[in-house]
Amino acid sequence: MPIKVKCLASGSTGNSYAIGDGENVLLLEAGIIARKILSGYLDMLPRVKGLLITHGHNDHARSAPKLSDAGIDIYATAGTFQEIFERSEKPVRPYRAHTILAGKPFRLGTWEILPLEAQHDAYEPVCFLLHSSAADENLFFVTDSFYLRYRFETPQGKKIPLNVIMVECNYSKEALNHSVAEGRVPEAMKRRIEQAHFSLENVKDFLTANDMSTVRHIYLIHISRNNGDPELFRREIQRLTGKPVTAF
Fold this sequence. Notes:
Order of helices and strands: EEEHEHHEHEEEEEEHHHEHE
Helix content: 25-40%
Strand content: 25-35%
Structural class: alpha/beta
Strand order of the largest sheet: 7-8-9-10-11-12-13
CATH architecture: 4-Layer Sandwich
């Protein structure tokens, strides 16, 4: 069975996704209330192997402590766990907290997970390259990173085939500049957005720089309500790649 993606929330008000390969499920991000996550993925919970969190901002990690109370193991960097504690004043249950390192792969059931460094204004943010042995597919998940240097190939130069891509497409430069001109976004916020989030233009550069021949679906995530246009972004990326695109 190919990898399937489910989204409960995507954006600055909260993020929550699940990916499954027919055998095991991974939760990605916990930025909405725990009750909605548990009820939204109710049919998947018996197959959930863990929750992966990219960084400690509330719209990605707010429910990690309560989900650990509910029996879900949490996987994040030490910096992310520290930031979760600082923001929530409640730690993830120690026996449910598993510290990961960028560049060090680990396995959860049928999933092999490689955390990679991300570029964001958070403590030790990461993105994930995930391989499912059950589906024999690779999924790349990245959000809240203003820059991506990755070209997916082995040290020997062999290409790593990407099958599913979940990539932040937060804003377009044109829309952001328009928001500034209309006074809806201050200049200081514009600089923060540009130094913390991935734009439509960056998504195009990233996709163009990597081999798209094996990609079967692209998901655009964390789209800004004020500075983004999901349908426009979907059409732009579909036109560029020739692949099916879903914009959450």
